[in-house]
Every structure is written in C-alpha cells, then in structure tokens.
Amino acid sequence: MKRMVCTAFMALVFLAVSAQENPYIVKTRGAKKSAVTQMADELAEAQQEAEDAKDFIGQNFKYYSLCDWKEGMKFMVMPEKYDLVVKTFTDAATGKEVSSMPLKYKIMVYKGHHESTDGHSRIDFECQDNGKKYFYEIPYGSFEDYCYQKTGVPTLAYLGDVDIAREKLMGKTLYTKTQLYRVDTEYDGEGFQNVLVDKDMEVKVTAVGVGSRHYPVKIIVEDKDGNEFYQNVAISKTNSGMRDDEFIMDEAKYLFNNSFELVDDIMGINSYNYRVYIGKVIHTKYPTKMLNEVSKKLQPIPRLTEYQIEAINPHKNDEKATIKLKSTILGTYFYTDVVLDQQNADNQEDYFGYVFAPGPGKKIQTTEGSRAMIRAGHVGIGFSEDEVMLAAGEPDKVDYGQNGQYTWTYNRSNNKLLFVHFDGTGTVTKTTVGDAPGAKKATKKRSATKSKNATPIQN
Questions:
Q1: Considering the entire predicted model, what is its pTM?
Q2: Strand ranges in 140-255 using DSSP code E only, listed in sequence order
C-alpha cells in the first residue's frame, strides 16, 4: 500500500514538474502552488544542482484538415474527462493501448499514416518528450474517408497555432470583445473561475500558451490596473473537433475574433505621427463606403479589400481626417473621412482602426477589360463574384435558383434594385434593374402613356 501511495505521489510530482517546465502551460498571477508543486520545485532544484556539480487570422493561421497534415506538425496531449476513460493512443512497440493521463502535456509529432495488416488505418506519432512511437487507430473506414471530417484525433491541441500566436501577439495591444473571461485558481492544475470585464477595454498580451483540444490557444492579457485574465480560443480550428456552426451562443466567445480585437501599430495614427504611415498597406475589416475618384460617387467597398495609404490630412475644425487610399488592384484612388483617435469617435464605424486592419487583403484576379468598368462602379457580363464586389460591394440579398444559378440584389439610392444574375460557375450572365418595394408608382394614365415609348433599362 505504501509503495502504491509513493508511486502515485511521484506521478503527481512528475506531472507538476512537467507542467512547470512546459512553456505551453501558462497561468495568471495569483494562482497558488500546492504542496506537491512546492516539493516538485525543490526536487527540480536538487536535480539541477546535482547536474551542475514560438486576422491576421486568415493570413497567419491556416486550417489544416487531417488530409492536409504534414509530417513534423506538433500537437500536445490535452485529455478531457472522457479521454481518461476511452484510451486514444496505442504504443507502437507493444501494441497496447495507453492511458491518456501519463501522456498529458506531452508533445506528439505527426509522422504520417499507414494501414495495419488487419486493414485498419492508423495515424502515426512520435512523442517528443519520451521518444516513443504511438498511433491512433481510426475507428471506421479508410484514412481518406475519415480525414475530411472535423473529428480528427482526440485529445490533441494543435501547437502550430500556439507558436504563431506567441510570435504575433506577445506584447501586443488588444481590445476585449466579450465580457466573460477566466483566471487560474490552481498553479499545478486546470482550475479556474470566470470573471466579468468591460467590453472594448484595452489590454496587453502578457503570455500565450496551450489551452484545450477544442480551443488550443490560451491568451493571457493584462488591463491598465495590472489585472490578468485569459481566454482559450480557437483560431485556425485545426483538429479542434468542432464545426463552424458549433461556435454559437456561449461557444461563440471562444473564437479569437469574438474575444479579442488586435490593435496593431498601424492603428496608432494620430496628429503627430501619421506621416510615418504613408505607403503602408491596409485592408478593410468590414464593408464600408468610400468616395471613388473616378465616378465621383460613394462606392460600397467589401471587406478584405486592399489599399495603400497615399495621404492623411487631419481636419482643422473636427476630430476627423481625410484618408486618400490607392487600390492595389485597380490603381484607383478612394477617399474616406475617419476619426484617428478612438476616444474621439462618437460611433465605432467612424474610427479608422475599426474599419481598417494592417497588412494585405484578399488577392483578387481581374481582367484588363473588366478593370475600367470596376473603376467606374459598373457591373459587366462575365464578371466573377470578386469583380462584382469590387464594383458594387457586398450584396444586400442573395437568392438561389435552379441548376446552381443565383442572384445578388443591391439596393440603389434612387429607389431602384440592381439584380446581378450568376450561372452555376459564379459568372455573371446578365444584370437587370427594378423598382424597390414601396417605391412611388406613376398614375395609371401616365403609365399607359409611357409604356408606348418605354425603353428597357440597360446596365
């Protein structure tokens, strides 16, 4: 009995030491060390003395389906309660299933997949921590049948997202986009309590580590008063085991963009340093409207459209500035009035940092023939979806027909509707114009007179 207790105690010490030494395990300040952890500290020190005598989102975080995994990708074993009952991995050397508990916090390196002699598909790993080889046996079907599903490999949190987030976010300023976050309560465990914070509060990233299998990136932030709290978030959703439509209601906050908004250096434009941002490339985060220098009209602009800052001219009589932007796709100039300092913005839609984000936008292919029409804000036959959005913005309504055909509807300022008709390949086949619902109609007498000489409206 004493031997069993000693063995269990040493296992706890081992886990505590593993958690302490693992750079992916991070905790908020104030989490208390248990007696086991303190003893683990002493043991680690003694051992050391004896030895002495790694959207932003769309651009940086790629989703990898299991079919796209590459050898060398790293994952950490983060079992949940269910995983302690149903064993995930098998020791390749012995052929015996292994409990998830001794593998907890260990890093698994993907080594490809193979088919066993009895016809079962297996996904291969090598443990970075102990050098042993393991495999996960797919419960049904072939690897090709299984790999496109969201299920992936249980218990494994994808460390590629953690490494990139650490590189891109450490020390960065973020804004809170929800109110419910967490603080750690255990130094050597996973205990936490929920805390309420203000939305749109400025915080700074102090640590990035591993969270859970579903939400693998743990981001710890600090507010201006020195209070730390964190959120576990999904970014690329690689091996998260969750579908996009599952991130709803309470789960929605576990998507990075629903918990945090990144404020990059480009967002720090103000009256005395704005000149250094001339020439920077930015893109729209949300649909907006800007003045088109060619058409002399306000043109709807879709999200992820890329521009280069040409000029920033602060107004003398208000808090706004006129930004001159050059489309990197069309070469056309656009103008928009924005507030540079968020504190002076009455509406968040007026704030430069709300509408725009730093870095390249969506890469859009256009033909030489279509660019002249797009510059003038016109939609032409043969346009792709991207070209239509460049010319007219994102549609107000989408209707689906037969054989893959569909129609985008745009509300025009003259009580007219523009209908853009697509075939099954996403190519514009025709455009039509109609009256908006509620638009004033002419009297019957005038209608009858006009119909004799009516000319179809061409777009």
A1: 0.52
A2: 156-158, 173-176, 180-184, 192-196, 202-210, 217-222, 228-233
